[in-house]
Design brief:
The chain is about 25% helix and about 25% strand. It is an alpha+beta fold and about 325 residues long. It folds into 3 domains: about 5-85; about 95-195, Sandwich (Immunoglobulin-like), CATH 2.60.40; about 220-324, Aromatic compound dioxygenase (Protocatechuate 3,4-Dioxygenase, subunit A), CATH 2.60.130.10. The strands form 4 sheets. Strands 1, 4, 7 and 8 form a 4-stranded mixed β-sheet that branches. Strands 3-2-5-6 form a 4-stranded antiparallel β-sheet, with no helix packed on it. Helix 2 packs antiparallel against helix 3.
C-alpha cells in the first residue's frame, strides 16, 4: 500500500483532476476501443501463427510482445478515462478540501468505499463528515472554515484518511499525517489491494467497476443491447467495435462494448447501476460503431432510445460510403 505520493506527483494529479473537464472523453473511449479491438485481432493472429509455426518462432514471440504492449496501453487508457470523468467540487476560497482517489495496484478506481478523516490517534473527526468513492475511486470532503477552526486544537499534529467498506469496517488508514489549515487543498491518493476490501466478517464486497464483457453480470441483473451489423447486401460485417452509451447532461456514460462476429452479430451486457441516477427507469440509449482504424462508421445519437428497455435490439446496415 502506498501511503502518499511525492509533492510533485500530487501537484500533477491535482492539475489532471482540475483540467479533466477539457478532456474529450468520447475521444478517449474511442481510442481505448481501438486498442481493445487491436488486442483481439493480435491474439487471434498469434494463436493462428503459434499453431502453424510453434511457440519458439520469432514472429510468434513478436506478436506476444505486441499483445503485452497493447494490454498495457489499454489499461493506461482505462485509468485516463476514469480521471477524465472526475469533477472536483467548487469550494469557497476560505474553506478547505481533502480529496483524492482510492485505487488498486493498477490505479483503477475502487467504488463504494467509505472515506472519513481521523486524528493521528485514530479518533474520527466527525465534524468533517464522510463520503463514498465514485466509480473512478474519487472522493471529496469539503471542510468549512468555521468547522476547521473548532477542531484545530485536536488536529494540530495532522489528520489521516480512513477507508472503510460498505459495512463501515476498517480497511485502511494512511500513516502519514497531513496538516490541514484554512483554505488548504490537500490531495491524498491511496493504493489498496482489492483482496483487502472484503469484509473480515464475510460481508459483501463493495461495488467495483461495472463488469466488462468477460465478466458478464448474472442473468437476473443483466441489461442487454444486441443486434447485427450488415452491408448493403445484408451480409454480416465482422470485426467492428459496437459501443452502447447512456446520454447524460455532463458526459455520456459508456455501458459496454463488443466486437461483431462473423455474422455481424454483437451482444453487450451491463447492469442497472451502470446508468441509473435518481428515478431513471432506463438509460437514454444510443450506439456507435468504429472500425479497426478508429473511424466512426455509425452513431445513433440522433435517434436516442429514451428510458430504454432491459433488452434493446439494433439492426444496422452500413453503406459502402459509410465504410470509406
Amino acid at each position: 500500500m502506498n501511503e502518499a505520493f511525492p509533492p510533485e506527483i500530487l501537484k500533477k494529479l491535482t492539475e489532471t483532476f482540475t483540467d479533466a473537464g477539457s478532456t474529450n472523453i468520447n475521444a478517449l473511449q474511442q481510442i481505448r476501443d481501438v486498442q481493445v479491438m487491436m488486442g483481439s485481432l493480435l491474439q487471434h493472429e498469434a494463436k493462428r501463427l503459434e499453431k502453424k509455426l510453434g511457440t519458439d518462432n520469432l514472429r510468434v514471440q513478436q506478436f506476444q510482445a505486441s499483445i503485452k504492449r497493447n494490454q498495457t496501453i489499454a489499461k493506461d487508457l482505462e485509468v485516463e478515462l476514469e480521471i477524465a470523468k472526475i469533477r472536483v467540487p467548487e469550494v469557497d476560497p476560505k474553506d478547505s478540501l481533502i480529496h483524492g482517489r482510492i485505487v488498486d495496484k493498477n490505479r483503477r478506481g475502487l467504488a463504494g468505499l467509505v472515506v472519513s478523516i481521523a486524528d493521528v490517534r485514530g479518533n474520527a473527526i466527525r465534524a468533517f463528515g464522510k463520503t463514498t468513492t465514485d466509480v473512478s475511486g474519487y472522493y471529496a470532503l469539503p471542510v468549512k472554515a468555521e468547522v476547521l477552526q473548532k477542531v484545530t486544537a485536536s488536529i494540530k499534529e495532522g489528520v489521516v484518511v480512513v477507508v472503510s467498506n460498505a459495512n463501515e469496517e476498517l480497511i485502511y488508514r494512511n500513516h502519514n499525517p497531513v496538516r490541514l489549515v484554512a483554505s488548504d487543498r490537500i490531495l491524498v491518493e491511496s493504493v489498496i489491494n482489492r483482496s483487502d476490501i472484503s469484509s473480515p466478517g464475510g460481508g459483501k464486497q463493495p461495488s467495483e467497476k461495472p463488469p466488462t464483457d468477460d465478466q458478464t453480470p448474472a442473468p437476473q441483473e443483466a441489461w442487454v443491447v444486441r443486434g447485427r451489423v450488415t452491408d448493403e447486401t445484408g451480409k454480416g460485417i465482422a470485426g467492428l467495435m459496437v459501443s452502447a452509451l447512456d446520454r447524460d447532461r455532463r458526459y455520456d456514460d459508456k455501458l459496454g462494448s463488443a466486437l461483431t462476429n462473423r455474422e455481424g452479430e454483437f451482444r453487450i451486457t451491463y447492469r442497472v447501476q451502470d446508468f441509473r441516477e435518481g428515478l431513471e427507469r432506463g438509460p437514454d440509449l444510443y450506439v456507435t460503431i468504429i472500425d479497426i482504424e478508429g473511424n466512426l462508421l455509425h452513431s445513433s445519437i440522433d435517434s436516442i432510445r429514451e428510458n430504454a428497455k432491459r433488452e434493446e435490439v439494433y439492426e444496422i446496415r452500413l453503406n459502402r460510403s459509410d465504410r470509406g
